[in-house]
Amino acid sequence: MSTETHFDKVTLIGLGLIGSSIARALRQVPVAAHVVAADRSEAVVARVRELGIADEATTDLGAAVENADLVIACVPVGAMGAVAEVIGPHLKPGAIVSDVGSTKGSIVAQMAPHMPQGVQLIPAHPVAGTEHSGPDSGFPELFHGRWCIITPTEGADPAAVDRVAAFWQALGSKTEVMAPDHHDLVLAITSHVPHLIAYNIVGTASDLEQVTESEVIKFSAGGFRDFTRIAASDPTMWRDVFLHNKEAVLEVLGRFTEDLIALQRNIRWGQGDQLFDLFTRTRAIRRSIIDQRQDTADPDFGRGRK
Ligand code: NAP
């Protein structure tokens, strides 16, 4: 049986980077007959209307989900429970509710209690983004060639899982199904802890009194600059990610700290072979990422010579 890829009505809640990118993509692929945008912010709703990226835009979340076949919550992770509570009573039987949150165990815990009988909760996480936020930062190709991880809970209807997967594939993503807890561990090492390290190194640099801010900026191309891009990511979103993926982040951070201390020892005792071996291993990982087309092979991340 082929998967039904068409939805009569899709409602997006939260029209920031991710929500507005989905809205824009839905203008290009025939997946949804009618797209409704809902956001708590009057200014965002007004901007969505100006941009013309949805058929309707409103601040009334309950009305927005009435009769929707697919609802996708695109708000910060810490706001998912509040959104689910508001929309729950307005969902029709047979509706699919999904989200794009960067953590998954917490989404299930926050949203599932508010889902009425006959509604399928199928959480998902498009592993695609930039350091920008708001409705003007979205673009329709954001998901092209990127992974979207779908994390159904036990007992989820496989047909609903397939429909959510087909939706993301139509937007250009590759999809994989994973348990919510496993997702949280994988993303802790690939995304959450790297962001924490970037926030930390940029914070340390700004506190280092013997080095002036102008020197940090002037000589940033030495590596620091790449951390600053990540450390410019949205503070609300990332505060919520750390508070809602606490266990996995702390576990990975524990391992990271041990490894960092080992490196400290290697440097202190002049153990060049250990350093060389590690740097050789890490170079191979970079090569695999490029081979699997998850980044460009261009020198200096494709910035070119200026
Ligand atoms: P964003 O650009 O900041 O947009 C979030 C939008 O949701 C804003 O318009 C915000 O309005 C609105 N909102 C917040 N709380 C709300 C509520 N209770 N009810 C209705 N609307 C509400 O954020 P984003 O980068 O698109 O991220 C959205 C989600 O995607 C997050 O869960 C994040 O973890 C996930 N994600 C992000 C990335 C990334 O790289 N950015 C990648 C993958 C997944 P206000 O401005 O009024 O707060």
Structure write-up:
By secondary structure, this protein is of the alpha/beta class. It folds into 2 domains: 7-178, Rossmann fold (3-Layer(aba) Sandwich), CATH 3.40.50; 182-269, 6-phosphogluconate dehydrogenase C-terminal like domain (6-phosphogluconate dehydrogenase C-terminal fold, Orthogonal Bundle), CATH 1.10.3660.10. Helix content is 48%, strand content 12%. It contains 12 helices and 9 strands. The chain has helices at residues 17-26, 42-51, 61-65, 80-87, 105-111, 158-170, 180-207, 213-218, 224-230, 235-244, 246-268, 272-291, and strands at 7-13, 32-38, 56-58, 70-73, 96-99, 120-121, 124-126, 147-150, 174-177. The strands form 2 sheets. The chain has a 6-stranded parallel beta sheet with strand order 3-2-1-4-5-6. A 3-stranded mixed beta sheet has the order 7-8-9, with helices on one face. Strand 4, helix 4 (80-87) and strand 5 form a beta-alpha-beta unit. Helix 7 (180-207) crosses helix 11 (246-268). It is globular. The mean pLDDT is 94. It binds NADP nicotinamide-adenine-dinucleotide phosphate (NAP).
